[in-house]
Amino acid sequence: MLFVSLYAIVVALGLGNTLKSLMLTYLSFTVPFCTWMLMGYFRSIPAELEEHAMVDGCTKIGALFRILLPLSAPGIVASASSRSPWPGTSSSWRWSSPPTRPR
């Protein structure tokens, strides 16, 4: 059902069978999913680690880059690898779309 409405939106925007429609559909699915997945991962990191970094003299940005990002690297890699557009995906899109005449 979701794809039918997404197709209707893409056609209504005049982007049917274009690269822009492919980018729009990739972004509309990957950004919310990766945000949801990373929110759960960041919530699993204890807030006390950031507080302890600030006691040791870090700023919020310093705690982010020195403590939180290294700890969240596995979640970022998992999110990026599970939702990145692989080269095979774009070729399958071309094969499944109806042929068009060159302009």
Characterization of the model:
By secondary structure, the chain is an all-alpha fold. The chain is built from five helices and no strands. The chain has helices at 2-12, 19-44, 47-55, 60-83, 87-96. Helix 2 crosses helix 4 (60-83). The chain is elongated, with a radius of gyration of 20 Å. The model has no long low-confidence stretch (mean pLDDT 82).
Keywords for this entry:
103 residues; mainly alpha; 5 helices; 0% strand; elongated
Blueprint (SSEs and pairs):
Elements: H1 2-12, H2 19-44, H3 47-55, H4 60-83, H5 87-96
Concise structural overview:
The chain has 103 residues and is mostly helical. The protein has helices at residues 2-12, 19-44, 47-55, 60-83, 87-96.
Can you count the helices? 5
Low-confidence stretches: none
Order of helices and strands: HHHHH
Q: Give the helix level as a range of percent.
A: over 70%
Terminal CA distance: 32 Å
Q: Largest beta sheet, briefly?
A: none
Strand element count = 0
> Mind telling me the C-alpha Rg?
20 Å
- Spatial shape: elongated
Derived structural class? mainly alpha
Strand content: under 5%
- The averaged pLDDT comes out at 82
